[in-house]
């Protein structure tokens, strides 16, 4: 990205970005009893980000020469163990239960502008959960689900999350779904360990400074209602194996989203409305491509609509595989 602003920056504006990820996992899937399936998965992931600059602030009275925001990190390691069981019960019920535990080790991260530097020290975090979901095939064309999940973590965020849904199949291959779900995410380490204000290493009052300490901010909690209509539009013919389409609307309310003023961190609420339309074409030669459009509106009950989040998103993708899907490219 290049732009001309010689009075603000003497050099051409450019962004150098480094965003890497490595993921590895080992999985066991088997049948313990005639009606019980067991799935055990151990995974490891490494994430690393760096942006120079991440953002560019315009000319203002506060920053007459503009400002650059640079972000660099030493990377984060995440190890996760998942254990899931599926039990087939009488009367068309299926019980899915299990749990997970993960450990995150985050390296030091530095965010720097011309007027302040915020350093997040290396840290560790333990998180996990236990869940149980019951799926009931009420009739040939109606399926109902209900579930509960308990969350725990080293940051002190403990809570129960609920979900429910109904899936209707009025005609073969056409599905109508109505779903409700809840989620919870702890505040980021750099905010929960924040002590704003004061003189630290010569920085003036009002500059947030990261120090070791206990969590002081609640985790964000979401509640969402989703409606979806999906299915195959035409039967298989010639090289075309399936033409799949989906349209859905989601309304999400999020409590305690982390926000930051010039001198401290706090929380706020968000209302999110999302509309998504997707069409996917699959061919017999293990080739498929898809296109989608998403509209998203995010509003703050106090500030109104948030403008820094894209409202319209369009994407186009394709996937091909060979050797009975042992090798794929997307």
Describe the model.
By secondary structure, the chain is mainly β. The chain is built from one helix and 20 strands. The protein has one helix at 189-192, and strands at residues 16-33, 36-57, 67-73, 76-88, 93-106, 109-112, 117-120, 123-139, 142-153, 159-171, 174-185, 194-195, 209-210, 220-234, 240-260, 265-283, 287-300, 304-305, 312-322, 327-329. The strands form two sheets. It has an 18-stranded antiparallel β-sheet that branches. A two-stranded antiparallel sheet has the order 12-13. The longest helix is centred in the middle third of the chain and has 4 residues, at 189-192. The two termini are 26 Å apart. Mean pLDDT is 79; it is low at 1-13 and 190-215.
Helix content: under 10%
Q: Decide which structural class fits the backbone.
A: mainly beta
Treating each run of at least 4 consecutive H or I residues as one helix, how many helices?
Answer: 1
Alpha carbon gyration radius? 24 Å
> Which parts are unreliable, with pLDDT below 50 for 5 consecutive residues or more?
1-13, 190-215
**Total count of strands:** 20
Largest sheet: 18 strands, antiparallel
Task: Please tell me the overall pLDDT.
Answer: 79
Residue fraction in strands = over 45%
Anisotropy-based shape? globular
User: Alpha-carbon distance between the termini?
Assistant: 26 Å
């Amino acid at each position: 990205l290049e732009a001309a602003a010689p009075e603000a920056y003497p050099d051409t504006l450019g962004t150098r970005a480094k965003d890497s990820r490595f993921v590895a996992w080992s999985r066991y899937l088997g049948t313990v009893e005639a009606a019980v399936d067991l799935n055990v998965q151990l995974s490891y992931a490494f994430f690393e980000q760096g942006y120079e600059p991440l953002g560019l602030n315009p000319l203002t009275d506060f920053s007459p020469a503009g400002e650059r925001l640079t972000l660099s990190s030493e990377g984060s390691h995440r190890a996760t163990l998942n254990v899931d069981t599926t039990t087939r019960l009488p009367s068309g019920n299926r019980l899915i239960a299990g749990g997970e535990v993960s450990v995150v080790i985050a390296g030091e991260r530095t965010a720097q502008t011309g007027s302040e530097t915020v350093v997040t020290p290396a840290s560790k975090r333990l998180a996990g959960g236990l869940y149980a979901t019951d799926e009931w095939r009420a009739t040939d064309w109606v399926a109902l689900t209900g579930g509960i999940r308990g969350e725990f973590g080293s940051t002190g965020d403990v809570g129960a999350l609920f979900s429910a849904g109904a899936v209707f199949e009025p005609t073969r291959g056409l599905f109508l779904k109505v779903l409700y779900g809840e989620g919870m995410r702890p505040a980021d380490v750099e905010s929960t360990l924040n002590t704003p204000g004061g003189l630290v290493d010569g920085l003036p009052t009002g500059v947030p400074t990261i120090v070791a300490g206990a969590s002081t901010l609640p985790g964000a909690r979401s509640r969402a209602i989703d409606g979806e209509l999906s299915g195959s539009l035409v039967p298989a013919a010639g090289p075309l194996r399936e033409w799949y389409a989906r349209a859905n609307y989601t309304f999400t309310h999020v409590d305690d989203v982390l926000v930051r003023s010039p001198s401290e961190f706090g929380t706020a609420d968000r209302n999110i409305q999302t509309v998504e339309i997707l069409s996917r074409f699959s061919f017999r030669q293990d080739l498929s491509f898809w296109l989608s459009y998403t509209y998203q509106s995010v509003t703050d009950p106090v500030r109104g609509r948030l403008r820094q989040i894209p409202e319209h998103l369009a994407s186009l993708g394709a996937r091909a595989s060979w050797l009975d899907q042992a090798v794929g490219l997307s």
